[in-house]
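Subject: mismatched residue count in predicted assembly?

I count 602 residues in my input, but I want to confirm that the predicted structure covers every chain. Input:
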Amino acid sequence: MALTTEEVRKIATLARLRFSPEEEGRLTAQLGQIVEYIDQLQAFTGSAEPESSAGLPEGQDSVLPCLPREVFLANAPEERDGFLVVAEVKASEAEGS
Amino acid sequence: MIGSSGASSLWDLTVEETARRVAAGETTAVEVLESALSRTAEVEPAIGAYLEIWADEARGRAGRIDARVAAGEPVGPLAGVPIALKDNLSLSGHAVTCASKILEGYVAPYTATAVERLLAAGAVPIGRANMDEFAMGSSCENSSVQVTRNPWDLSRVPGGSSGGPAAAVAAGSVPLSFGSDTGGSIRQPAALSGIVGFKPTYGRVSRYGLVAFASSTDQIGPLAKNVRDAAVGYAAIAGPDAHDSTCAERAVEDPLAGIEDGIRGLKIGSLREVDPSGLGPANARCWHESLERLARAGAEIVEVSVPSLQAAIAVYYVIATSEASANLARFDGIRYGRRASGANSLAATYVQSRSEGFGPEVKRRIMLGTFALSSGYYDAYYGRARAVLETMRCELDAAFKRCDLLVSPTSPTGAFKIGERSADPLAMYLSDIYTTPASLVGLPALALPAGFDDEGLPLSLQITGRPFAEAQVLRAGRAFEAMGDWRVAPTFKNRPGLGEGAIPP
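Triage response: the counts match. Full output below for your records.
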């Protein structure tokens, strides 16, 4: 199936990505071509039995040491008093704009 | 000039011989390292395999190995062997960026289990090697930092995504490197660079400390100049790990124990779906000669059919991108890596950091995966791909009832020109036809040199085994290799400013 620019915009919103109009045009064509190729899957018979995750060991439900705070924060883009600094959750600007 | 004084150079020794000499005190780890660093300084300007070289730290590590030898203390099976690590394997205190701008400045807070084991075995990491950003690509051109060139022909790609580790080994910088393979990212660059690459069974090697791309197929493995060296590298990293619940509990069979035992009596399945017309004349000829060579080694060649192979790329690019879209959601500019400046809300931080930090191929795959998982399309794409994958699993199970091992070419073509496929993502994806099935079904698969095309570029055979049949796969690879006379001696063709063939290997 071919994708529309509208659909590409919707997917971009879900993926937390933003594209320039030029990138959007290119992506619409490229993704359309790839999806068209992937559409051949409809011609193949699928097995009714999905892979089971049985057999995989379950993790122990116990408290284990995790990364020390200072080690974790060493990679933080911004920190203050042992906490991560982030922008306001609700700011004047609309989400993702 | 890129020269060589032949096999007597320490950098050109095999992994086994290097470790033997270092352990016996016949040479020192420091001498081996200096030889590797000097070779690297010679070849690196031409190939660009590394994002960072850790010379001083490596000298310290090599010195400590020599001290152990001098004190009569035991050293491991990789004593003093210089190695390169793909830039998605964590080594505590060192940058790991997946060749992406979004991880600029990120320093690994812990060491990957596989890397931990390599250090315990005595290996000396000399640097982190280039890759397609987040392991997404088949040419290494998707690195956000630099292009890596194929040591056989500098106008061509080394393959990908582990292009840096492959080029480093092919060029003689290190005898052993480690990459990750999600859909062929160890095997395809090994094929294009004329070396051996091995992807173990899914779950055989811990993924702890490997930056995730597609968690259901990601696996770490070695790249080396010959099968025995790949086996030594594999044995050092394999085995259970409490840090990765998908890592198998079962014990590891020593892959070197019977590696010289040959393949007499083994049944080797040749895939009916391999279409010689899609291979080009030289690769088709090489494919037939490979089957003949296996038969001469005593194997019985049987034809088997896996019809869903034709759907492998479609299945792979739905499943891998779906998993990637979820795995890469963590890169949002909040906890680590690049944060966009000027975003005035939390959501804007996510969007701007991701849009600035990811390159075009990574964005394309996140978009494709998000699409395949989105409401209204999930059943038709992700659900359908899972169902066809189960068909493929059943067909491969059936094939392995008729044969012990499966063979195919590793790649439909030899190394292609830099830039040749970068404008056409789908054409790039199609080069993964033979490597994706073993990834999707989690089987061990070995790529090894099988011949040359008409332009003198390496071609490769892939040997795939049943789950956890690593030792058998490596034994078959060794038997195949022993009947040829392959030498990793790249020609550095098309070096700017010098005539073709002007540089001896």
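The radius of gyration of chain B is 21 Å. Marking this ticket as 'not a bug'.
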